[in-house]
Amino acid sequence: MQIYKVGGAVRDRLLGIAVTDIDRVVVGATTEEMLAKGYRPVGADFPVFLHPKTGEEYALARTERKSGRGYGGFTFHASPDVTLEEDLIRRDLTINAMAEDDQQNLTDPYHGQRDLEARVLRHVSPAFAEDPLRVLRVARFAARYAELGFTVAPETLDLMRQLSESGELQALTAERSWKEISRALMENQPQVFIEVLRACGALEVLMPEVDALFGVPQPAAHHPEIDTGAHTLSVLQQAALHKQPLTVRWACLLHDLGKGLTPEEQWPRHIAHESKGLKLIKAVNERFKAPRDCQELALLVGEYHTHGHRALELKPSTLLELLQSFDVYRRPQRFEEFIAACEMDARGRKGLEQRSYPQADYLRGAATVARSVAVQPLLEQGFKGPELGEAIKRERLKALKAYKEQA
Hints:
It is built from 20 helices and eleven strands. Among the domains are: 111 residues, Beta Polymerase, domain 2; 129 residues, no CATH class; 35 residues. It starts with a strand and ends with a helix. The longest helix is centred in the last third of the chain and has 22 residues. Helix 18 packs antiparallel against helix 20. The strands form three sheets. A seven-stranded mixed beta sheet has the order 3-4-5-2-1-8-9. Strands 6-7 form a two-stranded antiparallel sheet. By secondary structure, the chain is of the alpha+beta class.
């Protein structure tokens, strides 16, 4: 019975990156032996055990065989005669197919260390093309390690393209897809994730609404980068640079989907793209079963982001409607995330990344003014029910008029 660290723990140690998760594989052991040593079994698909003291995961060395469609379409075989090399060859990338013992002696049968040094993401074997989830995983790794100069090997991109064309991507569950997408969006270079998906044809399959934005022009006066797809990638990059949460990054990715519906004869203008895009945003939300907070913010940003940009010009009544739409009285954080998404949108334009965004503070001030309207005096005046609601609205509008005059 031999125990090895495998995968990301080995990869990141060799890269000099802090190791967070440690995966271990056990060679030459049976389920009975693991149980006898006090390990606790978990997982129904293949033998994984928790260490009796540390609770860390230990998996028996195993092989796998394609038996159906999608990520779950595999049959696993674990036994004491499965070698370390046989376990490693079923992994996705060479840089994830290395192992080391407790003395840090490296086992690297598929030249992962060489690819680490060359900064290349390369598949281990042709079996890579059996698992559609690997398309998303490789794109995510490309986003994670882009800052270190990593790129996807051309032959690996070819296999990803084959998977995209095979129909296998449609077999992925919403849950598995969202897990990879959400992790990728939180990397330092999330726009690379979208670029790689597009390069292999997967974006057209998984998010045709986003893919449709590339090649769609916008007015150069407002968007020096012109291309709507390029703008979307820039907005996503700005969201990462400013350490925005997942909700904001998801909204940034989807905010301009309506521009993909504009007839060519109307280019580069996109009249009412905000409202037109809502059905597309809703479709993407539902396709990946995005968390509720991500869904809600994406729809609100899609509908109102141009209101955010024109905040200083909005009539007090329109401003009040905007605040009401976000329920800033009970959900102040959601409005703050909307402001952040608007600012990322404004900064995601070529040459304008450092331009100030005074609309942010103006909107925050408006929300504070509206929230500061006291309800108690109105109750004391005898207002109640619908009349109370109208009285509160009148006072908030009066306060916003004063705020706009002072701004």
